[in-house]
Design a protein that fits this description.
The chain is an all-alpha fold. The chain is built from 9 helices and no strands.
């Protein structure tokens, strides 16, 4: 139950203020039950967890701050923004919903698998460029291949790490608590998840430069 739903029930309390005692009793019992339920769920997660954190994401979308903002802007082509939203929503949902955690795992396992497939294809294509004779071109070619290998290894490592996690809310809590930073929240985790995609993009840029100027 989100903060908006609770606010709606509070509005019902005010509306029922002039109604019969039966309706007022029902409304009070309902809102009291919601608070009890929220306290039980909050105790399952961290002490400062709040159910309204997920609802507040709609009004205040998460953004990178500090050094993470610089990394996201200049090193990842701002690709980390969507990963930050994904991580933050799942982190806010981890207390009560295993579905969000399972969807999070499935999303990244599929994305990283696709990145590995693209990296293999591009690595083969880059290795088949035999018309390169200049030293600069050879350096660009080797750097592109090295970046693709890094993408393969990193995406495989992240996938293997995520597969070994369980499928329940408690596993999500353990996963996010290890990666969460006191000041920046899950921004570091978002950039880690974004790294294979960002490295792949850099390798594509190097490959394009190689095709245009490397021969």
């Amino acid at each position: 139950m989100s903060a908006k739903d609770i606010a709606s029930h509070i509005a019902n309390l005010n509306e029922f203020g002039g109604e019969s005692n039966g309706k007022r009793t029902w409304a009070i019992a309902r809102i009291f039950g919601l608070f009890i339920r929220s306290q039980i769920i909050n105790r399952y997660g961290m002490q400062n967890a709040r159910l309204d954190r997920f609802a507040s994401l709609e009004e205040n979308p998460p953004t990178f701050g500090g050094r993470y903002a610089w990394v996201n802007r200049y090193l990842t082509f701002n690709l980390g923004d969507k990963h930050l939203r994904k991580c933050t929503r799942t982190w806010a949902d981890r207390i009560a919903y295993t579905e969000s955690w399972r969807a999070y795992k499935a999303h990244y396992l599929k994305e990283w698998k696709e990145i590995r497939r693209l990296s293999c294809m591009m690595m083969v294509a880059c290795s088949c460029m035999n018309h390169i004779h200049s030293l600069c071109g050879l350096i660009l070619q080797r750097t592109s291949i090295l970046a693709m290998i890094c993408t393969l290894l990193l995406s495989y490592h992240l996938s293997n790490e995520l597969v070994n996690k369980g499928d329940h809310a408690a596993d999500a809590v353990d996963y996010f608590q290890v990666e969460e930073d006191v000041k920046y929240g899950v921004q570091r985790l978002a950039l880690i998840n974004c790294a294979p995609q960002a490295i792949l993009c850099w390798s594509i840029v190097l490959m394009v430069i190689l095709l245009l100027f490397g021969s």
